Amino acid sequence: MYSRRELLRAAASLIVPNRCPFCDVVVGAFEYMHEECFDRLPRLTERIAPPKGIGELYACFWYDGAARDAVLRLKDGHYIHAAEAFAPIMLEVIGGAVKNADMITAVPSNLFTRVRRGYVPAEAIAKEISRRCGIKFAVTLCTDKSSEQKRLNAKERAENVKGAFNPVDKALIQEKNILLVDDICTTGSTLSECAKVLRENGAASVNGAVFAVTPLK
Q1: How much is the pTM?
Q2: For 175-202, how does the pLDDT look when each residue is reduced to its tens digit (9 = 90+)?
Q3: Rounded to the nearest 10 degrees, how much is the dihedral formed by the CA atoms of 115, 118, 120, 124?
């Protein structure tokens, strides 16, 4: 039996066909991706050391190959439905530890980026994870940071995000164990700064979950 959400998604695919975020080929009305694509993804086979302030970091793949293509489609190709493919994979990696979270939140985007894209990639993933596991999603952070991280080195990234995030509602995060979601982790500076702000404003703990991690060089 399909849910109302799944039926609506299938109906929408009659107008705009569903495409696999990993290979960009059309998939079935009730599908999120090609199973054979999943088998080709660059899986992480080792534990990634969490950035400062993050208790545990749950990550699925190296940011390479089809995994990189899918993230870029989510971020810049308006493939918001890629989040529906990412979420169950991320939940499988997080496993039973997701039950330790009181709240799920996401790394925010600034207003300009949000308007340009029409959504926040990390937020789309976090909301889908929330929907699947039943743990509340909440927007906890905001930012007016306008300069992008992707062209910066590790030191510049850390400097760029200092003071870039602010709590939306301090009361919301008091004594909460928070799962912080982002699409990729490069140097960890963004996750670390977000965790710092959450902790300084009352969060009991902050763990991180990302779809992909930039390969070490």
Answers
A1: 0.90
A2: 999 999 999 999 999 999 999 999 999 9
A3: 160
